[in-house]
Amino acid sequence: MKIQIKLNKLKYYNDTYADLIIMGLLVTLICLFLLSILIFVSLWPLVLIWAINGLFNTSIEYSFTNWFIVIILSILTRIKFNWT
Fold first, then answer.
1. DSSP codes, 15-49
2. Is the pLDDT of residue 6 over 70?
3. d(CA 74, CA 72)
4. What's the pLDDT score for residue 3?
5. How many helices, marked H, and strands, marked E, lie in the chain?
């Protein structure tokens, strides 16, 4: 069995790099989207601690342990436990 690779698909139209530019823009947009999701996920616990401090005047400090606890509590409140 022979594997044939056609190189015709790699040809550029009119010696322009329009396909590469579009592909580069798509990769850039995907990277920016993933970066924005990462920023949102990392800042969400701090926003929640800030909201609780503002509403109830609890003076919870902004530390890594509290940030991690808020993440754990957020995950646990979304899980449905079946205790029967």
1. G--HHHHHHHHHHHHHHHHHHHHHHHHHHHHHHHH
2. no
3. 5
4. 58
5. 2, 0
Taking a C-beta distance cutoff of 8 angstroms, is the pair 43, 49 a contact? no
Q: Are 65 and 36 in contact (CB under 8 A)?
A: no
What percent of the chain shows pLDDT beyond 90? 38
Render the burial of 31-63: b for 16+ CB within 10 Å, e for the rest: eeeeeeeeeeeeeebeebbeeeeeeeeeeeeee
pLDDT digits (tens, 9 = 90+) for 31-66: 999 999 999 988 999 999 999 999 999 988 999 999
Domain locations in the chain?
15-78
Residue 9, classified by CB atoms within 10 Å of its CB into exposed (0-12), middle (13-18) or buried (19+), is exposed
pTM of the full structure: 0.59
